[in-house]
Amino acid sequence: MSQRRRKKQKKKTSASVTQTDHFFRRRVAHCIVSLLLVFIVIAALTVIAGPPSGRVIDYNPSIDEWYPSVMEKTKPDVVLLGNSLIGEGVDEQLLARQINQRTVKLWKGGWASAVWYLTFKNVVIPASSPPKTVAIFFRDHFLTDPAYRTQASYMTYIDDLAGPEEPMLERLAYLNGMDKTTYWLNQHWGLFEKRNDIKHDVESTVKSWAGSLYNHQNAQAVDRSIKKLFKVNNMLTHELANAQMKSEMVSNADLYDFNKSLPLSFLPHIVQMARDNDIQIIFIRMQRRRDAEGQSTPDGLDDYMRELKSWFEAQNVAFIDFSNEPRLKPEHYDNGDHLNRSEGRRLFTTLLAKKLQPYLQETAHTDQ
Amino acid sequence: MLFTSYPYIIFLTTLFFLYWLSGKKTLQNIILLVASYIFYGYIHPWFCILIAVSTIVDYICGLSMGRFPQHKKALLVISLISNLGMLGVFKYFNFFAANFQALAVNLGLDLHPITFQVYLPVGISFYTFQTLSYTIDIYKGQLEPRKNFIDFALFVSFFAQLVAGPIERARRFLPQIENPRRWNWDMFVSAWPLLIRGFLKKMVIADNVAVFVDKVYMLYQPSLFLLFAATAAFAVQIYMDFSGYTDIARGSARLLGFDLSENFKSPYLAISPSDFWRRWHISFSSWIRDYLYIPLGGSRTQGTYHFFSIMFVTMGLAGLWHGADWHFIWWGLYHGTLVFIYHRLGKGGHWQPVGKRKTFFAWAVMLTLTLTGWMLFRASSMEWLYRAFFEGPRFDLLHPRGVVGVYILMMTAIYCIPLVVLFLLDRYGHKIPLAHSIFCALAILMIIIFSRDNQQDFIYFQF
């Protein structure tokens, strides 16, 4: 009886072992098949995608004729380079009258140091009558953050201002900021390199589907609607400023380490180009809403600014700092860090003219 | 350290080999403990001091409760004050200071706000709740105090669930740490689908959908339709973000032989508020139920007023746990009110409507209520929500700008396709043996193509 029971027990145990074995084998088989499928699918798509171009970035270099034509038409004495901060905050004509010099603003919302470098190199210097002075307007650490705003939709700015060969741009704005794995994958794997194109194609297709519901709008029309809806003026001031600060923090971990950032940035190259072409360069630090409201600055920024200032002094480069300008008050701001068009713009332009005057007189003397 | 970063892959791979090659349980636990502190202090090493303090206090309190049972209550109070005190200082100090100052100004007093400039230590709410469960369980006599400090410290700081849960109970997780773990092929093999799902949910779905959500919720005044579209997208984003984190946490833990709890069970299929909380962030809702709702008398009370006040306190605190802001508190209170109303209508607990039509109706109602709740949760302020609801453009679906809302809904739907496939696979996948393999292959491909270049934090990190 007990023997029979033991036999039964044995049978039961061996049955459960077989079941576990079977289950385990199925799992392993599942794993192997998954790996095989991953390999097959990825290999097939890699073949379809073709070999990688070998370039660090995939941009379409063709300088937008609008910029050189503005330079030719206006033949400015002073060029202001910046982004929406000067777009909103500087009245070009008022400034020209106050400093008595032909002045032109070159800017688009979102321009940062990579685009300033390209504009200086490819538009300002090659102009038939280059300006005597170029002023670059920046916030906080932007001058030494070369990768900031060089990806995704900001690529169009690069497309508009890059020449056919831009090794400095590739190295500073993309290669240095790219982690080694992403760089290696980009260089050696066509499918990985084309991932942004695939994403863009999917988005365009969906945009055209959505547009077809609205009087057959195409993807471009939907794009325009999106841009119009999310333009800066429609956004919440503080949320936008917070998002801005967050994206700045994400873009570079050592952002406030001046000595580490400087050799990896466009700043020394911009200064050198200005020297080589006998153009006076002035760097102007803009006040942010945060400064006007008396909020504290991020940890490390004050040290960074001290080092930047001493570097400018050592290089004999002009630097104007508006960050502690007491006459610019919170009520002079519209949204985010943008000054309002009514009061803030006029006030800032006047303050700017006063601060620029001594430097412009210097160039006038040199000319004589 | 972010789960979705390259350093984490290197970290996990190195840890995996070191851990299994070390063989002995004690050595394994020491390796895990050191690794967990490296993981936690990777960006801000001082975070480790806080978790170490919390660990030491609760270890001593737990041990002392066993040795001096007559002082159990005092020791529990010490544990509660130290843990909740740290949480209060680092997470809620500025919130309460600002509100106190606003109140003083309203009363005509001129007070200057005292603010505390400090980063919120990631995951502090999660590990505080986890260690509290340990001391409370010992106090109740449901758990024996642990003598092995390494084991206890690992229970508090185990990297996989440290910063965003699941909040493991000491009764469930400590035995896993204390018992020897032997290499188990089954655990190893079952970890991969979880990891792939997690990365897919976070990197492909949540991160891409977040782009639209952030933009709409940053508008000064969106139309109602746009708000609806963005909220639907946010519902997908927060679920994918959080459940993606849980999947990666569970997958990583399985590679090391641990089994972490499930945190989500298709929450958007809930048919009532109680059902929703049985499916959403389960480890948190069950903690709230066991350590707050039941001790306050929620499961025993018959009185309407008493029951409502218990729900009010419990869910208000649950909302506050998510963040030091009024809109989180309103979100908690909103859910508390829903649970209360459903209970009073006789549709609380495990209520199940009869028939498919009624079930569908109950689901549709609950989904609408959940989405409304997410608006409270995501809005930057109540004032913003009021403006969007009552002052902004109404239902502008037919207006040309409505195309943006339609586009957002379409993109969200496209990104949800893998989610739907995943759901169907979980239900019916066993009938098609190859289905899971095909899904894993496609998921990896999607992760390669659709992940965004900039790493995005997990939403629940901020809590």
Categorize the overall geometry of chain A. elongated
| Beginning-to-end CA distance, first to last residue of chain A | 122 Å
CATH-derived topology of the largest domain in chain A: Rossmann fold
Q: How much is the radius of gyration of chain B in Å?
A: 23 Å
CATH architecture of the largest domain in chain A: 3-Layer(aba) Sandwich
Number of helices of chain A: 17
Question: Could you please describe the fold and organization of this structure?
Answer:
The complex is a heterodimer of chains A (368) and B (463). Chain A is α/β, with parallel strands linked by helices and 368 residues long. Chain A folds into two domains: 1-50; 66-177 and 252-367, Rossmann fold (3-Layer(aba) Sandwich), CATH 3.40.50.1110. Helix content of chain A is 58%, strand content 7%. Chain A has helices at 2-49, 66-74, 84-89, 92-99, 113-124, 155-161, 167-175, 180-188, 190-193, 195-212, 219-229, 237-251, 258-261, 267-276, 289-292, 301-315, 344-367, and strands at 78-82, 103-107, 133-138, 280-285, 318-321. A five-stranded parallel sheet of chain A has the order 2-1-3-4-5, sandwiched between helices. Chain A is elongated and about 110 Å long. The model of chain A has no long low-confidence stretch (mean pLDDT 82). The mean pLDDT of chain B is 86. Chain B contains 18 helices and no strands. With 463 residues, chain B is mostly helical. Chain B has helices spanning 6-22, 25-40, 47-67, 72-106, 124-139, 149-157, 159-162, 170-178, 185-216, 224-255, 273-279, 282-293, 304-322, 326-344, 356-378, 382-391, 402-428, 435-450. In chain B, 70% of the residues lie in helices and 0% in strands. Chain B has two domains: 6-183, no CATH class; 187-271 and 352-462, no CATH class. Chains A and B meet through α1, α10, α11 and α12 of A and α9, α17 and α18 of B.
